[in-house]
Every structure is written in C-alpha cells, then in structure tokens.
Specification:
184 residues, alpha+beta, Umud Fragment, subunit A, 8-stranded antiparallel β-sheet, 15% helix, 29% strand, globular
C-alpha cells in the first residue's frame, strides 16, 4: 500500500502539479520572494506554453553556466528530486518565431514589430534598460521577470549558450496559483 501511495504521489508530481518556492523579487509585483507557486505540468508536457504565461524552468545550460541537465537529472526534476537552486520563475514574453526588440519611442518592447502591452509591470517601470533585438529560434522561449530592474533574464544572457533563450523542454510547468489559491 505504501509503495502504491508513493508511486501515485510521484505520478501526480511528475504529470500533474508541483510546488516551487520563489527565491527572489524578480517577478514582483505578481510574485514575491518567499511565495510558493503551484505549476501545472500538462502544459509543459504538451509544449503548450504561451506568451504571458509565468513558467518555472530548469536553468542549467542557459541561465546557469553549466552543462544542460542529463536525462536522469531532467527526469529527477519532474519528480522534485535533485537540487532546487536550478529552478527559475519568469514570464514568457516571446515564443519560437517571434522577433522581440527594445524599445520603441515610448519605451515599450516591440513584439513582431508591434508595441507589447504589459499591464503586469508596475507603473513607471521601464520595459528594459538593455537594448536588444532577437529572433526566438525553434523550440525556445524568451523570458523576463516583471521586476525588470531586479531580474536577470533573457536580456542579460544574450551572449550565453542558447542566446539567453530557454529550451521549451526545460519548462516544468506554468504557474496556476500561489499561496493558497489556484487561479488559472
């Protein structure tokens, strides 16, 4: 019975929902450092991640200057086994095939040549102090924190392997709630 319970719990964690701790203020005001977020795994397993989604991903090989996770390490992260300091929480700004650049005359990001509306940013926060222009390659995502001055994200990692963009297969899930609420 105990083995069945452990297998069921592991299956739910690997294929359903999983909780993570937010370690910094890079996603303020939406998420605060110390918050616990719940992620929905099926979106990531189906590669169904959209612009605007807040995601948790494994940063090894892109955000962390190390080798990408091996197959067993990637599998372990699905079950919550392994180091916890390799996970990041950011908002998806652009997906494969998108062009993204900073910034227009009003200081807004340009997504596929059009100004991007970002209502989740605090008033007075610049879309980016770092100028850039990028095309998101296949199977990659461009991610940024909502607290742009306090976030290390795709903008700052353009010179790293993968150009600061994360492989979609490293996404563990989309955030569906934080604290005690699930608000998909």
């Amino acid at each position: 019975m105990l083995i069945l319970a452990l297998l069921t719990a592991g299956g739910i964690r690997a294929l359903g929902v999983q909780n993570f701790s937010v370690s910094s203020g890079s996603m303020q005001p939406a998420l605060q450092g110390g918050d616990t977020v719940t992620v929905w795994r099926p979106d990531a397993l189906r590669d169904d991640v959209d612009r605007g989604d807040i995601v948790v991903f494994d940063g090894r090989g892109s955000f962390i200057a190390s080798a990408p996770p091996s197959g067993p390490e990637q599998l372990g992260s699905w079950f919550g086994i392994g180091p916890r300091d390799v996970f990041f929480v950011k908002r998806v700004i652009a997906v494969a095939g998108d062009t993204l650049e900073c910034c227009d005359d009003s200081g807004r990001l340009l997504l596929n040549g059009e100004p991007l509306d970002e209502p989740y940013l605090d008033p007075g926060i610049s879309a980016s102090e770092i100028e850039f222009a990028a095309v998101v390659p296949p199977e990659r995502l461009w991610v940024m924190g909502d607290n742009r001055p306090g976030s290390t994200d795709s903008r700052a990692l353009l010179g790293r392997p993968g150009g600061g963009m994360i492989p979609i297969q490293r996404v563990l899930g989309t955030v569906i709630g934080h604290g005690s609420s699930i608000d998909r």
